[in-house]
Amino acid sequence: MMSLFFVITTLLSLASGAPQYGGVQPSQPIKTAPLTGSVQCRTEYATLWDTEYKETETQVCTTEYEKVCRTETQRLCQPTTRQECSTVYEKQCQTVYKSVCVEQYKTEYEPYTETECSTQYKDDCEYQWEGYGNDKVWAPIAGTCKKNPYETCKDVAKTKERQVAYPVCNDVPEQKCVDVPRQEC
Q1: Residue range 53-62, pLDDT digits in tens
Q2: Which residues face 141 on adjacent strands?
């Protein structure tokens, strides 16, 4: 039952989907043979078109290419030469002279003046004139004399000794060395 329904539905859809040409076209006028005698015969030709639709299933295949990529690693070895260099340090020295000074001392004599004083004791007496006429003398009065200190000062030139520092310098040789880099290949 189901298959019958399916067949009818398919036929109806095909019929309604078929091209419409405005119906059946009239054919050319029919040609007849000339009439002779009493029996008349004629041959008529009619062209009838009957459109028949046939449902066919066709399989259309297309080839589609899919791009498949992959990475292939290939090791290509070839002998190569390369230059290997290293940094070598070379000691370079030179003699430089350095002034080295030391202090030495010498004795110098410096002049100076010093005041020296000394104390002396003298008798101080009261005096009076004694005698008469031309024989008068200036004489101390007995019992009035006293010993008083008298300081006498004078400047005396002297020298004093002192140690004076002075530099004594000598050029002393000294080695100054530096490491100089050099490429060695």
Answers
A1: 888 888 888 8
A2: none
| Tokens at 9, concatenated | 């539905």
With a CB cutoff of 8 Å and minimum separation 6, the contacts of 14 are 53, 55
For residues 177 and 91, the answer to whether their CB atoms sit within 8 Å is yes
Measured distance CA(46)–CA(31) in Å, rounded: 11
Q: Using a cut of 0.70, tell me whether the model's pTM lies above it.
A: no
β pairing state of 137-140 and 127-130: antiparallel
141 contacts 126 by C-beta, under 8 angstroms: yes
Q: Are strands 146-184 and 86-124 parallel, antiparallel or unpaired?
A: antiparallel
Q: What are phi and psi of 94, to 5 degrees?
A: -145, 150
